[in-house]
Design brief:
- By secondary structure, this protein is α+β, with helices and mostly antiparallel strands.
- The protein has helices spanning 48-62, 68-78; strands spanning 5-6, 13-14, 20-22, 28-33, 37-38, 41-42.
- The chain contains two helices and six strands.
- It is globular and about 40 Å long.
- Helices cover 30% and strands 19% of the residues.
Length: 88
């Protein structure tokens, strides 16, 4: 898990080529997933809290040991360290 790459917007693990977003010239962007970043632009204008709410069901589904509230709490703690949401 320590060498895993995560989308710097939604936190999705990036393991396969098709997981990565793309730049304007179509090359893979190593910071963002295909759902968050396409053709050199973010796919949606969203706040960190909005992204968390969007991701809660996916995280809760992926982690059977995690409730929606646990997923929400985890993301609220983790997301501020991601590139898209860092304030400093």
């Amino acid at each position: 898990m320590e060498n895993m790459i995560f989308c710097q917007s939604c936190g999705m693990p990036l393991g396969k080529d098709e997981d990565f977003g793309t730049t304007v010239d179509g090359t893979k962007n190593k910071d963002y997933c295909a759902y968050c970043y396409k053709d050199g632009e973010f796919t949606q204008d969203i706040t960190m809290e909005g992204m968390i709410e969007l991701c809660v069901p996916f995280m809760a589904e992926a982690r059977k040991d995690m409730t929606a509230e646990m997923a929400r709490k985890s993301m609220r703690e983790w997301f501020p360290s991601l590139k898209s949401w860092k304030t400093s």
